[in-house]
């Protein structure tokens, strides 16, 4: 007879066997399959699971489960209670799940607003959220069938040299800014890139004052971006949106107008996100 946690979780079928017998699909990675099965099993258990329980529940060798648990614990996804010896989910896993959920909600609410910004400017529109150490793009709209901007949904981007990243940092608590930057070296993409924390913090102060950020060939030569933050009720950045174009598409003659359009779109989205539903 299995224990209560085992009955709740149930015995999981080996996913790699399913893939292997499903025709011409590319085979999955067995170790990753097993690691994901462990995360799912632990997440479903209210009080956590021990090594022995996971071994029996997943029908896997004890040595394999132990190595995977050590890896997941060191990576910050699981934690082991020193008293009960049970493994539970760590906050890093919760943070990733929260970001994913927020990203889905944001995309749904933002899509018509971003489409309107695309129509108004004729430029590529991006939306990103803050990841652990980089900006994660969660939406992209392009005015052309073939994108001229080498970005995609899910791409990670630097904080210090993108308009999205500057907005996300500028409207975050100082402790969060310090956590993200830490002792990291700011990669210099070219001579325009801000490559010191001191200069970056001065830039962030300017972004807070203006309400928008500019990437003036700081990440890629020949490209400019204008971004604005999507703020929650406390004035912190939940996300940021931006427009991107080459030097002829964003120049001295139209930059002020484009800044206002991006800010307006971000403000509209902020109001929608923070709106209290009527009872």
Estimate the helix proportion, in percent.
40-55%
Strands of the widest sheet, in order across it, are 5-4-3-8-7-6
Q: Report the top-level CATH class of the largest domain.
A: Alpha Beta
As a percent range, the share of strand residues is 15-25%
Q: What structural class do the secondary elements suggest?
A: alpha+beta
Order of helices and strands: HHHHHEEHEEEHHHEEEH
> How many domain regions?
2
**Assembly classification:** single chain
Radius of gyration: 23 Å
Profile the largest sheet: 6 strands, antiparallel
- Level-2 CATH architecture of the largest domain: 2-Layer Sandwich
The residue ranges in which pLDDT falls below 50 over 5 or more consecutive positions are: 1-22
* DSSP helical segment count: 10
End-to-end distance: 49 Å
Shape: elongated
CATH homologous superfamily identity of the largest domain: GAF domain
Give your account of this protein's structure.
The protein is α+β, with helices and mostly antiparallel strands and 279 residues long. It has 2 domains: 4-89, Arc Repressor Mutant, subunit A (Orthogonal Bundle); 99-274, GAF domain (Beta-Lactamase, 2-Layer Sandwich), CATH 3.30.450. It has 10 helices and 8 strands. It has helices spanning 4-9, 15-20, 30-44, 51-58, 62-74, 91-121, 163-170, 174-181, 197-210, 255-274, and strands at residues 78-80, 87-89, 124-130, 135-141, 156-157, 213-216, 223-231, 237-246. The strands form 2 sheets. A 6-stranded antiparallel β-sheet has the order 5-4-3-8-7-6. The protein has a two-stranded antiparallel ribbon with strand order 1-2. A hairpin with a 5-residue loop joins β7 and β8. α3 (30-44) packs across α5 (62-74) and α4 (51-58) crosses α5. The N and C termini lie far apart (49 Å). Residues 1-22 have low confidence and may be disordered.
């Amino acid at each position: 007879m299995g224990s209560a946690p085992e009955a709740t979780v149930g015995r999981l079928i080996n996913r790699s066997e399913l893939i292997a017998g499903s025709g011409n699909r590319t085979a999955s990675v067995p170790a990753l399959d097993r690691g994901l099965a462990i995360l799912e099993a632990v997440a479903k258990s209210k009080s956590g699971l021990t090594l022995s329980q996971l071994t029996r529940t997943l029908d896997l060798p004890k040595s394999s489960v132990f190595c995977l648990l050590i890896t997941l614990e060191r990576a910050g996804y699981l934690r082991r209670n020193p008293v009960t010896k049970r493994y539970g989910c760590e906050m890093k896993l919760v943070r990733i799940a929260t970001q994913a959920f927020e990203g889905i909600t944001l995309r749904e609410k933002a899509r018509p607003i971003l489409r309107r910004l695309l129509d108004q400017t004729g430029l590529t529109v991006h939306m990103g959220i803050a990841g652990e150490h980089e900006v994660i793009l969660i939406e992209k709209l392009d005015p052309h069938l073939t994108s001229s901007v080498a970005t995609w949904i899910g791409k990670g981007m630097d904080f210090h040299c993108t308009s999205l990243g500057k907005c996300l940092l500028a409207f975050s608590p100082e402790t969060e800014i310090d956590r993200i930057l830490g002792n990291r070296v700011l990669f210099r993409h070219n001579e325009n890139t801000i490559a010191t924390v001191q200069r970056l913090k001065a830039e962030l102060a300017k972004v807070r004052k203006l309400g928008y950020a500019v990437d003036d060939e700081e990440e890629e030569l020949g490209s400019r971006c204008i971004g604005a933050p999507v703020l929650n009720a406390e004035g912190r950045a939940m996300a940021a949106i931006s427009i991107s174009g080459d030097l002829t598409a964003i120049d001295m003659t139209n930059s002020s107008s484009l800044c206002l359009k991006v800010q307006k779109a971000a403000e509209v989205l902020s109001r929608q996100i923070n709106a209290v539903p009527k009872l």
